[in-house]
Specification:
Blueprint lengths: L2 H32 L10 H23 L25 H13 L5 H27 L5 H21 L12
Length: 175
């Protein structure tokens, strides 16, 4: 199989994964919205396994996007002649915004950056709605939605921490 075919198939799998994540969790959120107040929607174990696996994949891609540490300055030999503007340098929230901005302003479409941006946008929207459903329905939110809400909150806090350049807590040294 050629490198181009592998890249195409990998891209197709990536697109199907984000579409599956959005559909499975979107459907779960809609079920929560239309369910009677005192009813907790339930999902079969296979649904939960697939949705959870996709949430792990999508959440991992989003976390990687925002935790990426860009170099402070590229080596001079790699800088294009006539290039102007500041050298990109960011981590956390700024790295994610830089990646999203570059996806749409570079002149040509970078498919990998475009799909990564789609992952970030879909994950943020689905997580936000999961958090809202959990807050609104409290005790009647299914574990599938509640777990995504909790993980989303954790990721949002980590992104906010990196935006303010707050160092992570130090590991305790073993005595």
């Amino acid at each position: 199989m050629s490198q181009t075919s592998r890249r195409f198939l990998a891209g197709l799998v990536a697109i199907l994964a984000i579409a599956g994540f959005g559909f499975l969790y979107g459907y779960g959120i809609v079920l929560c919205c239309i369910a009677p107040t005192e009813t907790t929607p339930s999902f079969n174990p296979e649904y939960v396994y697939v949705a959870t696996a996709l949430a792990g994949l999508v959440g991992g891609v989003v976390a990687m996007t925002f935790n990426e540490k860009l170099p402070d300055a590229p080596p001079q030999a790699t800088r294009q002649a006539g290039a102007t503007g500041p050298t990109p340098s960011a981590s956390g929230f700024r790295a994610g915004l830089t990646a999203i901005k570059n996806t749409f302003t570079e002149g040509k479409i970078d498919v990998l950056a475009f799909i990564s941006t789609a992952y970030v946008i879909v994950y943020f929207f689905v997580s936000f709605f999961a958090i809202a459903i959990w807050i609104k329905r409290s005790d009647h939110t299914p574990d599938l939605i509640k777990n995504l809400a909790l993980i989303g909150i954790g990721l949002f806090l980590a992104i906010a921490r990196s935006f303010f350049n707050v160092p992570p807590p130090k590991q305790r040294e073993a005595a």
